[in-house]
TrEMBL record:
SUPFAM superfamilies: AFP III-like domain, Aldolase. This is N-acetylneuraminate synthase. SMART domains: SAF. It holds the Pfam family NeuB. GO terms for molecular function: N-acylneuraminate-9-phosphate synthase activity.
Length: 351
């Protein structure tokens, strides 16, 4: 199935284009607008195509409660024992920061959009002219939110961490019900950080066939190996959390990429995509010169008319202008019809 490209800002997304790289800021601004703006500049300098925010307030995503329902498990690797209210208070991007972040992104030439977590977030992002929407993994079951975001007629990117195929399909159909076919579904493991062995990236082509959408990858592993593998399996978009530095770099910094790693992600996923090429077997144009220097049968010693062809005067050597090496058994013992100097490609008219 050939799917149409999707365009976000100036960049097209699809199999015929280099992977679209999204730098996820999340809460790694660490409560500082200056740091948020620096992350935007860093992402642009590293070559990412977009920087993504998360648009919510603590009160639009949860309630202030200390009961077990609203507290992370004690064993959570990063945020064990914290309440949702406390975590989201720390991690949220204040709404008044959105406009200056959008302005900075425009200034440095990088696209910016966000994950909305409720209808008021979509209202804000519409006012700012966000060119796309991302649905976070935990919101994949919020079909009314997906319908509202999709109804704006912009590309919608749906992350699938924790979701069954049925839940993913329901989210895709919710988006399609608005007439919006600009959908990218992201393979994702919603663990922070995720072990590479939990990635199950062989599911990428399965998802593409089942859903009939472009597929990308939301990567929570450490390093860039998983992202390159995802591209090799058909992902046309990669989302990666980023930070200015992991040490003290923000709430998600432990599994986020630093600037040099983001730069490597951009360059190496592009290399991985370039390596895919076409589904064909055979010599490439760039191998044309190499074809000249395959082996073939050559006269390797001066011979006279009437001399027999032997292993001493005809051998398989480079280059490839003579008869094929496998023909030697056919010609051995035949006699030359003329004098032939050393270095002559063996041909049928010489014997």
């Amino acid at each position: 199935m050939t799917l149409p490209d999707i365009k976000i800002g100036p960049h097209s997304i699809g199999p015929e284009h280099e992977p679209y790289i999204i730098a996820e800021m999340s809460g790694n601004h660490d409560g500082s607008l200056d740091k948020a703006l620096e992350i935007v500049r860093m992402a642009a300098k590293a070559g990412a195509h977009a920087v993504k925010l998360q648009t919510y307030k603590p009160e639009t995503i949860t309630i202030e409660s200390d009961s077990p329902d609203f507290r992370l498990s004690e064993g959570h690797e990063l945020w064990g024992g914290r309440t949702l209210w406390d975590l989201y208070t720390e991690a949220h991007t204040p709404w008044e920061w959105h406009a200056p972040i959008f302005e900075e992104a425009k200034k440095v030439g990088i696209t910016v959009f966000s994950s909305p977590f409720d209808p008021t977030a979509i209202d804000l992002l519409e006012e700012l002219g966000a060119p796309a929407y991302k649905i976070a993994s935990s919101e994949i079951v919020d079909l009314p939110l997906i319908r509202l975001a999709a109804s704006k007629g912009k590309p919608i990117i749906i992350s699938t961490g924790m979701a069954s195929l049925g839940e993913i399909n329901a989210a895709v159909e919710a988006a399609r019900s608005t007439g919006n076919e600009q959908i990218v579904v992201l393979a994702c493991t919603a663990n922070y950080p995720a072990d590479p062995s939990e990635s199950n990236l062989r599911g990428i082509p399965v998802m593409a066939d089942a859903l009939g959408t472009l597929i990308g990858y939301s990567d929570h592993t450490i390093g860039i190996g998983a992202a390159i593998t995802a591209v090799a399996l058909g992902a046309c978009l990669v989302e990666k959390h980023v930070t200015l530095q992991r040490e003290g770099g923000g709430v998600d910094s432990a599994f986020s990429s630093e600037p040099d790693e983001l730069e490597a992600l951009v360059s190496q996923t592009k290399v991985g995509w370039q390596c895919l090429g076409q589904a064909r077997i055979g010599a490439r144009q760039q191998e044309k010169e190499g074809l000249r220097f395959r082996r073939s049968l050559y006269v390797v010693a001066d011979v006279k008319a009437g001399d027999a062809i032997t292993p001493d005067n005809v051998r398989s050597i480079r280059p490839a202008n003579g008869l094929a090496p496998d023909t030697f058994d056919l010609v051995q013992g035949r006699t030359f019809t003329q004098d032939v100097p050393k270095g002559t490609a063996l041909s049928w008219d010489l014997f």
